[in-house]
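User: Structure please.
Assistant: Input sequence and predicted structure:
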Amino acid sequence: MNSASKQIPVLVLAGFLGSGKTTLLNHLLRACRGTRIGAIVNDFGSIEIDAMTVAGRLGDSTVSLGNGCLCCAVDSSELDLYLDRLTRPAARLDVIVIEASGLAEPQELVKMLLASENPRVMYGGLVEVVDAAEYDATRARHPEIERHLAIADLVVLNKTDRVEEAELARLRASLGTGAAVVESSYGQVDPELFFDPKPITERIGQLAFDDLLDDQEPGGCAEDHDHHTGCRGHRPHLHAGYESVAFTSDVPLDPRRLMAFLDTRPEGLYRIKGFVDFGAADPRNRYGVHAVGRFLRFHPEPWTGERERRTELVLIGAGIDAPALERRLAACVTEDPHETPAEHAMWGVLRYVPEPEQDEGAAEQNDRPEQDEQLSRDVQEPDEAGEFGELTDPVG
């Protein structure tokens, strides 16, 4: 896909005032490792403190929306105006983060993003940041936080350094969300949870300052790290808060079996990425997979001579059963790679493939009508269990 038609994931970063959204965003900017990030920052107030903080790192790649809430816009056209600026090919961005105001309704932002007519944007997930030390007080003041947690794709439980272990366990149990939950202090979360860092061979310019820092945050100290818990100069590995499963297969996958797996993927599984070989079901193409929470998209692309035909998937989440996921994926392998598949075997997959002409610049509004309609209903009216409804069963 060329730069003009490249789709850029757009991540919504939400959370009530003081939860640590800007701290998390600034951490992502420091630890991006050459990945080019754009930001839409929505302060509520006439002095745009958050926007100024982020703009110091991003410059022209920041769009500020001061003194109001983006989710109060009448329709998605206002959001498209900001996205148009950041998704132009000249900006060469890899990911866009919308930092919502602490008073924003995240479900409205998600609906606006799904309704966007910008063909270069792709839903990247809703991340809800929660202040662990103030959660009970926040829930008392803002009971709507339970609704926000119900629709989140990922929950970042921030400021856990201020909470005792027993209280933290109680808090996790009380969140009542089926989303993946990761813990953090000072907003330090591995960027690979949100986007794929750019390989060092693809980075532009000389070695970046964050490469030299080796991801160390400011404020390091020379004290004994065994007892100095407040030191951030030598932090624990950020990937300790989540798990990943790598699955490869030289035998093609059965499209119906894979769709059955995707329709019933477990709680805590946040992202799925990689490529799938469906063998005789579509011998000409491999299929890129992009799944965030309940959002799913396939992107077919022709096989080339230098590519080895195989399936390679990475699944990322928190509290997941890695061996069980591996067994379920292994069960998706076709029994006879040379057998001619059923006529409608690919229908379930193709429902999540955008129309070819829309990848080339036509409006994206209609490339996923059923999925966007389903997600919009789920965002507006989560079920009693507080989760998104499952994806519609595959056709055929």
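The first helix runs from residue 21 to 30.
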